[in-house]
Each structure stands twice: as structure tokens, then as C-alpha cells.
## 1
Amino acid sequence: MASPPHPWLKPAVLVGGLYPLAHLALAFAQGALGANPIERVLNQTGLLALILLVASLACTPLKVVSGWTWPIRLRKLLGLLGFTYASLHFLTYAVLDQGLALGVILEDIAKRPFITVGFLALVLLVPLAVTSTNRMVRRMGFPAWQRLHRLAYVAASLGVVHFVWRVKKDLTEPLIYGGVLVLLFAIRVAEALRKRRARSSAQVPARSV
Amino acid sequence: MRQKPPEPLGSEITSESLYLRRREFIKSAAFFTGTAAAVGAGLQLLSNRPTGGDGPSLLATPGEAPKVVRPRGPYDTDERATSYEDATTYNNFYEFGLDKGEPAENAHTLKPRPWTVVIDGEVNKPQRVDMDTLQSWFPLEERVYRMRCVEAWSMVIPWLGFPLAGLLRRVEPTSKAKYVAFTTLKDPEQMPGQKYPVLDWPYVEGLRLDEALHPLTLMAVGMYGRVLPNQNGAPLRLVVPWKYGFKGIKSIVRISLTEKQPPTTWNRSNPREYGFFANVNPEVAHPRWSQASERRIGELRRRPTLPFNGYAEQVADLYKGMDLRGNF
């Protein structure tokens, strides 16, 4: 069941997706981010990255479950918004928090699993962002492109691990995101199995002729 | 004779297709605005976690300046004090919520008077004393101390209080006393965070007796010339300026002298990350972040962390011969 074109949908999600950034930048400039503004920016950009990545990964399962096609049209935009916030999160850490002290940053990435995992998630998102254009899909061929973009699941899972390890106590919130990811994964697996069964049952009578 | 109303000019008539497109446009604009607002508000709701600073409720327990304020003691730092607002709205006090802004919002349920403190264990004069009586035993001193949180941020706070040593001498520790154990109030009605098993309630902390007797170790009843706000540990808290902030147990109801090292809350919860000694040490990293530098609240740039939080000259002797990597 195809959805109507809804020309407003993508621009609306883009504006809504960038709203927290504008809000954060304004509040930062006004000094309205409380006693530890850098911590606030770090926490919020990190959370936004995770939320938007999970949202982009929810598009396909949502289509499978509901039959709507409009979520698919948002997948790329949500993924790129997630990547944007993930990059800002890292830049906040590297520039504002650590003052670009390269030695400290490299030591953090190498020695502290919580940071290693977060950094790895960001690195995995880079090839996905680079290959996000339609031209790249054509150039790579859809199956190869699709295989590559399955890395998004790995990146989001690492994002959840990064979040779990960051929290000092009370794992409720990171585990909610983890739970949602598991559910989304399960829907994909179930759909893949259903398709395979449908294909093989369609082939059996053909062979028996 | 009736005149026919003038026909509008052809150029003035909106064509039907344009008329329909206009309706379509308005509808689209409405959907656009609605969707953008919903997405923006949703993301904001899920991700925006204020960490203090925007509640007017910090004065929920307005502090009157105590009558007796002594001149500054010999251990003061002359570094600029953190703003009162930051120090009272950016707090780790899990009994009132996990986010740093929550204690200032929620701590009004704590009733710091009447308040009783039990002093017992290996002492010759165990007692149960009313808070006002206890406070009247000692003149108040102002001490401007650096405070370093294990999370790598720091503040400078002018405390009002009295040395713990005076209190301990008054109750006369026996020869068996080696440690001092402190306990926070446990009352989920007054401390709503205790309804959740985030930590083992009540919060407990401890010091070795020589640390407790050190002249820097303070029992605080106020800060910034005022009564201690609830979120900062009213009515009585511990301040040990050369140790990470979590050692500074708040809202104390029991002080026990013990022969054995007492189990302490964060150490029991995660011994790999939070040691019993918790001395500020730039060379011993927390497993998840470096402790080599810190951010002073109110500043954007980090500054190097000093051994023993800058009090090495006064306290390093206490740890002579100890492996401070193993005993972190």
C-alpha cells in the first residue's frame, strides 16, 4: 500500500530533528545550561544520536508491520540526522571537553572500553553517511549497499553499550533503547524467514512438474 | 430599474485548479508544522535532561545566616568560590534523584529539624544527641575548600562547620577504635529516591580513625554563610577535602567507631571503580575516564588535578608506605 507523496513530510522531520540542536546552541550561548554546560551538551547530543539512529532503524520494521511506505522515505534522513548528532557529540568531547588534547583523547579511545565502543560506533557510521546518496546506491549495486548498511545495527548496538557503560547507576534508560533495538531486529529476522519460506514453497511445485 | 451587479473581471477569478492547490498548500503547511513540532518536541522530551540550574526551588529551604561566624581558618584556599546557585543546584544526592538537578527540586521533603545523631560503638561515652545541642558544643568555623568529584568536576565551597576531631575527642574513642562509620538517614518518605533500589540504603561511608582526626576533616552544618541546604546534606554532613566527593556523606544520623573497616556504599556497589580510600589522585584513572584533569564548575577549560586535591602537604603523611594504586 503506497502512501500519498506528502511533500511536507521530509522537510518537517528535518526541521523537527534540528530543533533540539538550535535550542541547545541558543541555551549554550545564553549560559542557560546549568552548572556544567559541557556535560549537558555531551549528554544531549549523545542521546539524540542514539534516538535518531534507533528511529531510522525502526523504519523498515514499521513498514513490515504496518504496510505503510512513508517510513522508508524517512530512513535516510533520520540516519543522517543521527550521524550529525553523533559527530557533534564526539566534537563536543574532543574540542569543548578535552580542549583537543590529542594525547588524552587517544589514550581515552585506546584504554577505556566505554569510549572505545562509542568511538567505534561513530567510525562505523562514516561509510554509511558517505554512501547515503542515490548515486552511491546505484554505483555499489543495491545488494552490496544493503549489506554495508547493515552496519547501522552494529553501530546502534555499540551506542547502547556505550550508554550502559556511561551510566553510574540505574540502567533503565539505556536498556529501553537496547530492548527496542532487539525488538526491531526480531521483526527483521521474522520477515526474512517468512520471505525465505514463501520462496521455497513457491519453488517446490515448480520442481515437481 | 435594477442593475445587474458588475461581473468580476476575468483576471480576478481564481482558477479552480489554483483554488484547489491553495487548499492543498494550506493543508500541507499545517501537516508540515504539526509534524515538525511533534518531532522536535518528542526529541526534546526524550533527550533534554536538565542538570540543575534552572529551578527557582533552590531556596525551598532558605538559609538564615548563623549567628556566630568565625574568621577563616588556616586551611583555606583563596581560589574563587563556586557560585551559590551552582553549588546548590548541581548535586549528587541519589536519595533525591539520579540527575544532578533533582536534589534541589526534591529535597524539600527532608525535615532537618528535629534531628538526632547517634554516636556509638568503640567509645567511652556513647550518646544520642539532638542536632541543635550537638552544634552548640562547637564554635563554627568557615573553611573554603576545594571539592573534587570522582566524575572529574570540581567546586570551591566555603563550608561552615567544626572539625570532626573535636566531636570524636568528646566521646572518647576506646583503644579498639580504628575506623569511623557514618550512616545517612533512611526514610523513603523524606528521601523519595530510597524507594528505588539504586544503591543499598541507607548510604554508609567510613574513614580510618587518623583520617577522621585530621584537622582538615570537617563536619559541616552550613555553607556560604547560611544553613546547609537540604540538597547539600542538611543538617549535618562530612567534608574530607582531599578525597573524592562521594566520601562526604550527607544527612548523617549515626557515627559509629569500629574496630574493622566499615563496608561503604559505593565501594560495595562497584569496588573496581570506587575504592574505600578514594583519595584524589591524578595518576590513578577511574576505569572509565582519566582523573588527570578536571573541570571547575563555572569554567569551560579543564585544569590539571592535584594529588590529594592540593592538600598533599597536609595529608600525604597519613599514607606513607601505602600502595595508593591498590588502595585507591
## 2
Amino acid sequence: MSDPTVGVAERQVDLAVVGAGPAGLSAAVVAAENGLTVALVDASPQAGGQYWRHPDERHLDSYARPESTGHHHWPHFRDLRTRLSRAVDAGRVLHLAGRQVWQVLRPEGAPFALRMTPTAGRDASAPADRVVHADRLVIATGAYDRQLPVPGWTLPGVMAAGGVQALYKANQVVAGRRAVVAGTGPFLLSVAAGLADAGVEVVAVCEANALSRWAATPLRATQEPGKLLEGVGYARTFLRDRIPYRTRTIVTEVRGRGRAESVVTARVDGAGRVRPGTERELEADLVAFGWGFTPQLELAVNLGLDTRIDVDESLVVRVDDAQRTSLPGVYAAGETTGIGGAVQSCAEGELAALTAVADAAATAPAERSRRLARRIRRGRRFAIGMHRASPVPRAWSDWVRPDTIVCRCEEVDAAAIAETVTGLDADDPRDVRVTARPGMGWCQGRVCGFAVSKLTAEHSGCAWTREQLEPLQKRPIGVPLRLSDVAELDIEGRITP
Amino acid sequence: MSPTDPRAELRFDGTPVPFVPGQSIGAALMANGISSWRTTRVEGRPRGLFCGIGVCFDCLVTVDGQRSQRACVTPAHPGQDVRSADPSTPLPLPGAADE
């Protein structure tokens, strides 16, 4: 674990990997073991990503459950962690922890330049030193919870499902006493089971879709026996703790003064339309929402990589069957290529590394690459089944009222978005963004981007295309940074010494 | 959920808040029943942790004088001075410190 306050000297490596979750960690380790020098840049102080989030390794004695709190594939992480520290000790991997890449430059004929800023606090090094040069690049930046606005979702006590999980995985803190977990997809099960294990009373898990959707793709589900076993484990926890699991049920409103105190749930039909008379109010001080995931694409979109819309309607990076993107020397792995889970991410990270090794004219084991490619194709088939079983309901915008806040940062409500499209003739999400200003605040549309695009498409009749989605993902400065860092750049975009 | 080290304590708007070493500022506040710590610029609404992983910027705090730090990704340290000051409050003008 490196200390983000220690300066980073300017480095030149064969391969830079952005993100140290399952995909990036696998890529960095495998690339190093096959002869490349690697820089692994990661926002967290320690490797593992969101999936293997765990308490600070320097203080494990302080925690009731050291390291693993309900993690799947934990031994695999331990193995990767051991191999990473071996590679770091041997000088083959430079682990730049606690740093975020805010820009990747691609000077003609020169290596990629990755500019970094500390995730938290200040960095002792000068901006000019916070750069890594790399001949090749693996983008493994992962994903975060996809959100849909609903009345009351800005109240404290309402959190992204993944955030609730991150809080108990890494900090062993639960965000409330009585919880409702709502949205769609198998991830809700994991969050609810984790909360129950931590002693929280889970009063309802509201899954918007019917489980019968899984039955429509039985072959896809059986492709991944490991996933089925995980499901059986959750079912056992749900039975033991008597957690009510309600399908075709949504949260239509969160109520409370100053923080969440209750939710209103309702039954919906197959399209997501509320069935009148089915509303119920449940007391809850914690509401966890998850509607699938949004891949983190700032660097990918800014590099101009080809994208596509995945089965879950997310914008993802287009890769070939060896994890190459449309830009030579750039590879993508993990959730950025389509949400598929940790096992899939590890395989993609490993394959991206082997492809980079081969492209660098070093020797990569070809049979291992072929095996990984087969494994990834199988995982993708499973993911397609999962996405088809857990779609965002077509009629979700019916749940939004005119005064429902859509953009949390700039506090833009649904009426303002509708008025911008129908009254001011804004006809794509970018128009709406610059006119009504949703997505123009701190998070730059990371949270509301999906909803804004969807609402715009609905009001304008525009199709759901990558051309519509990309403008909302375009953030030339990938993460907020100090103005002084920008001030030190000269007009050609180089860092002034 | 876990034993609290009584020596580890930060200050939140001047009030001591204990935490377990390795926790984030956001986790320390939540563990002590503090669920919101800033208000929004337009409507003055309370906000605390939302995404929990550094994406949404709802949980901003001032840490040892550094504004706009994300409580969810900033590690807690003993003696840290955490303030709920609204990030939209204008910075004082140079030389205006005495006013």
C-alpha cells in the first residue's frame, strides 16, 4: 500500500492499468508476470475495487471481522494481492494508490500520458510529477450504481445500494436500523443479505421485475453454476432472517423530515405501471436503491474509443474478442465493457494483459488466451440473461412527479426537464443539460445521466442511441481537481516544468 | 459492529466523534448517528452519504481547512477538524480575513 501523500516521480512503463478492482488487479498482475513493467493507478488506498472492498489493512485488529465481510471469491483476491505485492517488491509494478486519473493524453508518436490527482486531501508532489507515461493502457475503471429519481430520494438515509454495501464492507458501519432495499437485479440480494448479517432489520426487498423473467433464459442461467450457488446462499439467509422478498414491487416515495422515516411501496405490472390500491407505507430509516450499474467511462469516452449500448441500456466500450478497443494500444476490461460481475472481470483483465503482452511483441501463452476468450463468451451469455431478467421498467417515468428532483447537484426537477424539451425545443440530452442544467453540478451527470437521457428521449421522441448517450458521458476533466493543477498546464496541454 | 478505539477521535463542527482506525470520515459520522452534514445551494436541503464511493459528491465536508472533500473517500484521522461548511459558500476575499 502506497501513501498518497508521497510524491510520484515521473515514470515510464510498458503498461498503465487504471483501476485495481477484479479486472485491473488481474491485468496488472498478469502483465507483470509476463514481462511488462506496469503502473497500477487506483482511487482507493488499497487494492480490491468496489467488489473486494475491505477494512484498512493497516488496522485489521480494530475490526470485528478482519478483511472479508461476506465476500465471494475471497481466496482469489488473496492470491492476486500476494502476486501484486511480489511484483511491486520486484519493481515490476508501480502501485499508485489513492490517486485518480483525470486526463489521458495521446501525443502523436509518444506514449500515453496519464495525469493524476489525489483522491482525498493534498499530494506532496507537484502536478508536474503526477504523471505516468505508458506505451499501452488498460481501462478497468469499473462501474457504480445506476439510479432512478423518485420523490424523496434526496433525503439523508437514502443511499445507493452499492454505497450501503461499501460502508459495511470497508468500515463495518451500517447506515440504519430498519432497511428497505429496492430496484432490480441480483445485487439487491447481496446487499440485503449483508445488512441482515450485520444485524439490520430488512423490512422489504422490492424487486421491480418478476422472477419468471429468469425462466425465459434458463440456459443462460445454468451457464454459470457459481452464480446459482450464490443465489441459493442468499435464499438461505432470506429464509433464516425472514426477509420479505417482493417481486413486481417498487418504492414510489420516500418520506421523512430531515431524513428517511418511511417508504411507500406499490405493486407494478410487467411494464412497471403502478397497480392502484396496492400502496403500502413501511417504516424505514435506510433505503438502498440499485437499478443495475453505470460503467465509469470518462477516460474511455475522452479517448474517443468506440462504444455501444449493452443489453441493459448502458453505454459500454466496444472491445474485440481479445479486449482490444478501437484505439491501438488501449484495452478495456471488466464492467466498462458491459456489466458482467467479478469473475467475468478477472477473466477480461487477464486476457487484456495477455493481449497487451502479445501486442508488445513479448511472448504470451496463446492457449491461455483462447481459454479465457471462451470463458468470457460464456460469462457474457449469462450477463445477457441477467440483464433481460432485470430491466429498468418501461413505465418508470410514471413514478416521477413534476417536482421530483432529477439532478441532485443542481436541484433540477422533472418539470424543468420536460419544459426544456417541449417548450424550448431542446431535442437531445446535451441541449437539455446546457439549458436546464441537469448534470452540470459536482458529479457532472454521473448520477442523473441515465434518467436525464431517458426523460429527454421520452419527451422528444428521440431514439436511445450511443450518440445520445455519449455527450452526457463526456467529461474532459475526468474527476474534479484543483484549479492550480490546470493553471500549471501550458497552452499545448503539456505540464510546465 | 466493532470495538471502538477511544483514542481515535475527530472533531465535527467542534464536537468529538470517535471512530475505528481505517474508517472514512463519512463512516465515522454515520456510526455516530450523524446522517447529514451539508445543505444544498438552491433549496437548503440536508445531504449526507448517497453513493458512498466517491461518485456523487453529496457528502462534501471541509477537512482541516481544505474545502469540498468527499467524506466517503477521505480517511478519518485523530484530531482532524471536520466542518460541515456548505461548499457553495464563497471563499473570503484575499485580505478580508480580519473582517
